[in-house]
Design brief:
By secondary structure, the chain is mainly α. Helices cover about 75% and strands about 0% of the residues. It folds into two domains: about 1-185, Orthogonal Bundle (Tetracycline Repressor, domain 2); about 185-220. It is built from eleven helices and no strands. α7 (about 105-135) crosses α8 (about 140-155). It is flat.
Length: about 220
């Protein structure tokens, strides 16, 4: 019941905004009394804080798994990007509220979130620093790289709309981000060669797919 209330609240806050949504709206959407909602959350502020803490818990659990994976630091950084993009896509309502409604949290509830976010950023920065010491990444200022990676990945919540436009999934988006960050965006001769190679592979795949059809046409 608590998870259902949180999920429905996140969807309403994303669609209408936190301040414009009342607990009466939430109770109607859930098909339950407001007293039942109060049985799980003392106030709308506590409900918003629970959405923030659940989002942080999901992010922290994924990061902990990455740190425990034993992968080289550079690969851990790739996994951080994948983790964030997948989280945004899978939990779009929660992440939208998380990034757009922090100012709605009262100071007493905001402090814990700020501490958790700072601890999370420090953990990612430690991965960057280990990668730099191992000679796996070239970065003059680790904190700037952390801000760039997390900002790029988290901003997906602003423009990702499932079922609208081109059908990108989370892993496709993450792979494009990783390629962009690691290789840069300037078209060097090596980059052009890789792109030609990818196009040739796609053409070969299309030709293989057409061969059965061509054989059928050529028969008398």
């Amino acid at each position: 019941m608590r998870t259902e209330i949180l999920t429905t609240a996140a969807e309403l806050f994303r669609a209408r905004g936190y301040r414009a949504t009342t607990l009466d709206d939430l109770a109607r959407r859930l098909g339950m009394s407001k007293a039942t909602v109060y049985g799980h959350f003392r106030s709308k502020e506590d409900l918003l804080a629970a959405i923030f803490h659940r989002t942080m818990t999901l992010a922290e659990a994924g990061l902990a798994a990455i740190r425990a994976s034993g992968l080289p630091p550079a690969e851990q950084l790739r996994e951080v990007i994948r983790h964030h993009v997948r989280l945004v896509v899978a939990e779009r309502a929660f992440l939208t509220v998380f990034f757009s409604e922090e100012g709605s949290l009262p100071a007493r509830l905001q402090k814990d979130i700020v501490r958790r976010k700072a601890r999370y950023d420090r953990t990612v920065r430690a991965i960057v620093e280990r990668a730099a010491r191992a000679g796996q990444v070239r970065v003059a200022e680790p904190r700037l790289l952390v801000l760039a990676l997390l900002g790029m990945s988290n901003w997906v919540y602003r423009w990702y709309h499932p079922g609208r436009g081109r059908a990108w999934d989370a892993d496709t988006i993450a792979a494009a981000f990783i390629d962009l960050v690691e290789r840069g965006y300037l078209a060097t001769p090596a980059a052009r060669g890789r792109e030609v190679g990818r196009r040739l592979q796609r053409l070969e795949g299309e030709i293989r797919a057409l061969r059965p059809l061509l054989r059928g046409i050529s028969r008398p």
